[in-house]
Amino acid sequence: MDLLIFLLLLASPVALAKSSPTVPAIFTFGDSIFDAGNNHYKKNCTAQADFPPYGSSFFHRPTGRFTNGRTVADFISQFVGLPLQKPFLELKIQILNGTLKRFPSNGINFASAGSGLLFDTNKEMGVTPIQTQLQQFQTLVEQNQIEKTPIQESLFLLESGSNDIFNYFSPFQTPTLSPDAYVNAMLDQVNKTIEQIYKLGARRIAFFSLGPVGCVPARALLPNAPTGKCFGKMNAMAKKYNTRLEDIVNIVPTKYPGAIAVFGAVYGITNRFQTFPARYGFSDVSNACCGYGTLGGLMQCGREGYKICNNPNKFLFWDFYHPTERTYHLMSKALWNGNKNEIRPFSLMALATNNITF
């Protein structure tokens, strides 16, 4: 028995070494689900979360993240064992003023809250569209401001499209495209995104689906949306996009030699939280913890007159659009080491450790 224990102890460091993530950096693109504070550094941007009580549960101060703590990108970075990635625009300022000599080796967060796959989505708010985010990354690579060698081993996280679909139903905009044509335009940008980052060296790519956008408390702002249930038309559009997105992800290894990609089924994960709230420790999966009015969806958290719940951990939604840190944590765990109902064809942990089996 003593010999068996000795052999197990001797073997365990080897086993750990084989399963340790081999990701040197994470590069993140998308919207508020990922934004670590880029919008804060844009003076003309009105999509902001740089005021209390944002950040109150973990950072104990606002960081520009649109939740009460960490985002999915933050949790994935912690699972990998890397320091949290800083916003590109913060790093750029530090480089320009000399407080930072070079961009950090653990990756960069380019995401901008309010942005979409379509260039004009929330353009009037001064957000950074994904096309510009990709150009920012491309410039760094081409100007040798970040090391090219580790890029192929790095993890690329991409999530965008919720704002495009929500805006399609906005009373302030008259759609010029049919729902199908609109989704096609979004997917065209997905294809362009993959092609662009692949040319720049990306080989480990994770695309996250849209969640049930029609369930966000902010639907109370839309005159034709129900408040007693989710907005079915909006969710149907999100599901159509997700199905087509997964088709694109599935052909990445064939279309782009050497690249591997995974599809994070965020819609299904979130839907389970809504269907079985008690199982996941939620007491409210409809209302915003922080906001005002119907569903807490008529006012942004932190604005004059807002109300806040006693325990954000019991709520699925933090504010009128965004999940709580606890929701993000549960979601991140499912994406990191979940089954094929949650992420496929394999988990983020498998992608990060090169432990890939189809």
Automatic annotation (TrEMBL):
Signal peptide positions (record): 1-17
A Pfam cross-reference name: Lipase_GDSL
Keywords carried by this UniProt record: Hydrolase, Lipid degradation, Lipid metabolism, Signal
Coiled coil spans: none
Annotated GO MF terms: hydrolase activity
GO biological process: lipid catabolic process
Tree of life domain: Eukaryota
The family this protein is said to belong to: Belongs to the 'GDSL' lipolytic enzyme family.
Cross-referenced PANTHER family: GDSL ESTERASE_LIPASE 6 (PTHR45648:SF141), GDSL LIPASE/ACYLHYDROLASE FAMILY PROTEIN (AFU_ORTHOLOGUE AFUA_4G14700) (PTHR45648)
Protein's name in the database: GDSL esterase/lipase 6
